[in-house]
Amino acid sequence: MVETVIRVEGMSCGGCVNSVTAALKSLPGVTDANVSLDSAQARVQYDPATVSEQQLREAVEDAGFDAPV
C-alpha cells in the first residue's frame, strides 16, 4: 500500500467532503480515504498495482472538484 495526499479545491461543506470521500473509496484498490475540508486535501491509501494517482485525481474531478498537481 502507498499513501498520497491530493489537494482538493472547491469544497465548501461537509457534503463536499462526503462526495470526495465516496468517489475515492469507490475505486478498486483504495483502502482508505480521509478528506479534510480545513486543509483542502485528501489523504488516500491505495494499491498502486490496482489504481494510479492520476485515477484518484480523475475521481475527485469527476465528483465536481479540482485536484491540481
From TrEMBL:
Keywords recorded for this protein, A-Z: Metal-binding
Domain of life: Bacteria
A matching Pfam family: HMA
Signal peptide (residue range): none
Annotated HMA domain residues: 2-68
PANTHER family membership: P-TYPE CATION-TRANSPORTING ATPASE (PTHR46594:SF4)
Protein name: Heavy metal transporter
